[in-house]
Amino acid sequence: MIPAKIDSISITPKREKGVESILDWFDQHKQAFYTLGWSYLRNQNQVIELFYRSIIKVHKELPRFKSESSFETWVTSIFIHTCRELSVNRSLQVSEESESCPVLFKALDQLKDDEKEAMALTYVKGISQEETAHLLQISAEKLKELLFSGIQSLRKEMGYGLHIGGCKEYQKDYIDYLERTLERSKKIEFEIHIYHCQDCQEDLATFQDVMLTMVNLTERIEDFHVPSDFMENVKAKLAEKEKNRQLKIRKRIRLGMVLAGVFALLMGIEIFTGAFKSLYYTMTEENQELRAFLQQGLGERLNLEAERNGVKIKIKSAILDVFQTLVFYEIEDTDQDNQYVMNIDEGVSVENQYEIMNGSANPRYYPPDLKSEVNIKGKNVYQGKISLPPISKDKGTIKLKITKLLKLIHDPSNRNRLRVSDNMEYKTGEWNFEVPVTKQRSVKYALDGEKEVEGIPVRFDKLTIAPTATILQYSIKNDQMKKRIDALSFDNLVVNNKKMKPDLYGGSFLNPLQDMNWSTFQINFGPIFGEEPKEVSVQLQSINLTIEDKKTIELDAAKKYPQTFEYAGSTISIDKLEVGVSTNMVISNLEVKNRAYESLQFDIIGENEEHPDSIEMESEGVLVDKNGVVYDMNVTPFSYEEIEQPRYFVTVQRMKLQNNNTGKKMIPKWMEIDGYNTTKYLDDVVKISLE
Fold first, then answer.
1. What is residue 286's three-state secondary structure?
2. DSSP helix/strand/coil, 579
3. Any idea which of 1-10, 40-49, 147-156 has the lowest mean pLDDT?
4. Of 71-85, 519-533, 582-596, highest mean pLDDT
5. How far apart are CA 186 and CA 192, in angstroms?
6. Residues near 510 by Cβ (< 8 Å), separated by ≥ 6?
7. Over the stretch 362-403, which tens digit does the pLDDT of each residue have?
8. What confidence tens digit (pLDDT) does each residue in 282-320 have?
9. Contact, 182 vs 191, CB < 8 A?
10. How far is CA 558 from the centre of its chain?
11. Most distant CA pair in the chain, distance
12. Angle of CA points 151, 157, 162, to nearest 5°
């Protein structure tokens, strides 16, 4: 019923033969890979590009090939990755060639990407389920789920409907039964059930029809021959690449000779200028952030390396100032196609921390850079940075020890998106470095600026320009009883017409000694190099306010609930009040349009004005954007960063009240509301003078 599986061929081209031997190998296996390529693509030129890129990648990765799997399986994995890259980038419009492509490929186009891959490898290329699962890096059970759902989807397209009515507990055995791989005891049980279940008979019959259709289409694909000039076109593309490579080599040799002469001249007359340094690092450093530091002379290349368990870590450079030690690193998996990131909270330590570092400073948090082009395109290399506390001296050597690395994966729904692995996979080992650092100069400027925000004074005190960050210190005078600012956020800081965005993780509270009426904070912005500030301004973004608005609500457990009351222009419902060993109480307000408050501040008081010993609270809420569009986080998928001026409204609060020590029931008598929290968005621009 199902086509016989193709045995993997373990023939490895010799490395010294170069690209030609790999081209010959692809020529021998072109029919199977040509068909697989058309499962992803619909254009002859794209399939030529697919073969060309795959041959180049196989040649490049050949030194890493391990004999644990067959050569064909290893090549197929590279071929599939290349298929994915090209299929993501191809035009959405269907070409003329795709209109005349076999029916099988049009059928596969109806499936989701993961279903399509599973079906193509299993039924079109004809490899075993075990190898398919290995190639797709999924479990055997997950592969069977994809094959089943793929056939189900095709069945719907063929007019059978998505589900006839078979018993779910037996549907998982359909494929193994029809392929005659179901173990005997399960086969007997399955056939007994099918004999007595009319729904399963009909369900299995239509499922079998779709599988037979797949088989027929697959057999007909044998007539889908590779064009006679196909491999010649691939070979011509490879020859063109080699020609261009040789030209580049010759150009580099000539350029190297010129640069060597210029370098010698510059050094000979001692004018190694900043312009030359900028050009040099532009050509030799791909990390743009690190490049900017090196071009400004704020650090030096270190390139310290340590390799353990097939993973090489390189410390590229370290930039030290009074706020932090910024360490730039690169991690390369030399055995497999994995990407790893350092996690400052686990697996990263400084062995001489108490001897050398400032104990009062906290390291900054930098999330993994999952959007940079170099990390998205990389299969086995990740470039990142971590922040360590600054050292207490002007110079020193940091003994950095790495024992654990966090694994990243490409999101299956979007292969151009990186994320942390679902089960938090780690790579362990021990990588040790001695990192020399020199503290760079920072400059502080006193500011003279003040503005009232919602009637509350906000004062701008100091601007510090350090190599790794620009820090704004400000204070808020919360001496009013009815209103206070809990948090102030900024849209940008502008220094000499250069705009910088705030660091989302770089704000902190300072404890002032001189004036206890003011609360002092600092917020970090991006670095600004070589600037003496003359004009400074900040644009405010939003404030979180606490509004005092007291109200007491009398509670009576004997009443029937829900009961409602009015507060801050809204109608609030007490949905439940049940007294027991644990007293359960639920309040809600699902109406968020024009609602003044986002969350309430309240307390529950019992008999004799007693408070519960413990309160367990759960809440539900929704996000609302600037235009009043509501986003239910449990229902609607969305990206928080893409919501304009989001506000989070609590809609339901569930409480469990207990008197743990006395053993007495907690009987609520009053709900005392102290006030509420709300967010207001601003667009004020404040110009600040320098003293």
1. coil
2. coil
3. 1-10
4. 582-596
5. 10
6. 473, 520, 521, 522
7. 778 888 888 787 888 778 899 999 999 999 899 999 999 999
8. 666 778 888 888 888 888 889 899 999 999 999 999 999
9. no
10. 52
11. 97
12. 65
Amino acid at 65: F
Structure tokens at 262: 């210029």
Tokens representing 514? 């001189």
The pLDDT value recorded for residue 400 is 95
From the number of C-beta atoms within 10 Å of its C-beta (0-12, 13-18, 19+), residue 532 rates as exposed
Supply φ then ψ for residue 191, to 5 degrees: -70, -35
Amino acid at 661: N
pLDDT band of 18, cuts 50, 70, 90? low
- For 606-629, what is the HEC assignment? EHHHCCCCEEEEEEEEEEECCCCC
Instruction: Name the band, by pLDDT with cuts 50, 70 and 90, for residue 164.
Output: low
Provide the phi-psi class of 569: left if phi over 0, else alpha when psi is between -120 and 50, else beta.
left
Please give the helix or strand (H or E) that residue 435 lies within, else none: strand 426-438
Closest alpha carbon to 657 in 671, 643, 646, 645: 671
| Beta strand spans in 288-392 (E) | 304-308, 311-320, 325-333, 339-342, 348-350, 381-388
Task: Decide if 163 contacts 153 (C-beta within 8 A).
Answer: no
Give, for 499, the enclosing helix (H) or strand (E). Answer: strand 498-500
Contact present, 525 and 500 (Cβ < 8 Å) = yes
Q: Residue 481 in 3-state DSSP? A: coil
Half-sphere exposure of 435 (CA within 13 A, CB side): 37
Give dist(CA 246, CA 287) in Å, integer.
Answer: 27
Q: Encode pLDDT of 117-139 as tens digits.
A: 887 787 777 778 888 888 777 88
Whether residue 445 contacts residue 465, with contact meaning beta carbons closer than 8 Å, is answered with yes
Helix axis angle, 288-295 relative to 274-284, nearest 10°?
A: 160
Radius of gyration in angstroms for the set of CA atoms belonging to the chain, rounded to a whole number: 33
Those residues whose C-beta lies under 8 Å from the C-beta of residue 471, and which sit 6 or more positions away, are 323, 463, 464, 522, 523, 524, 525
Task: Give me the count of residues in the chain.
Answer: 691
Distances (CA, A) of 651 to 102, 529, 655, 675, 681: 54, 47, 14, 16, 21
CA angle 579, 580, 585 (to 5 degrees): 45
Spatial separation of the C-alpha atoms in residues 549 and 286, rounded to whole Å? 56
Other beta carbons within 10 angstroms of residue 210's beta carbon come to 20
- What are the DSSP calls for 447-475, one per residue? EEEEEEETTEEEEEEEEEE-SS-EEEEEE
Give the tokens for residue 177: 């039964």
- Could you tell me which of 468, 49, 39, 363 has the C-alpha nearest to residue 224? 39
Q: Tokens standing for 551?
A: 């109200």
Sign of the C-alpha dihedral computed for residues 95, 99, 100 and 101 taken in this order: positive
DSSP, residue by residue, 82-101: HHHHHHHHS-SSPPHHHHTS
Among residues 484, 487, 486, 599, which one has the least CA distance to residue 547? 484
Q: Taking the chain, what is the end-to-end CA distance rounded to the nearest angstrom?
A: 86
Q: Are 390 and 320 in contact (CB under 8 A)?
A: yes
Q: What is the distance between the alpha carbons of residues 120 and 132, in angstroms, rounded to a whole number? A: 10
Q: CA–CA separation, 221 vs 201, rounded Å?
A: 30
Query: Using CA atoms, how far apart are residues 271 and 298, in angstroms rounded to an integer?
Result: 19
The answer for 568, left when phi > 0, alpha when psi is -120 to 50, beta otherwise, is left
Residues 538, 472: contact at Cβ < 8 Å?
yes
Q: CA angle, corner 341, sides to 335 and 342, nearest 5?
A: 120
Provide the 10 A C-beta neighbour count for residue 362: 12
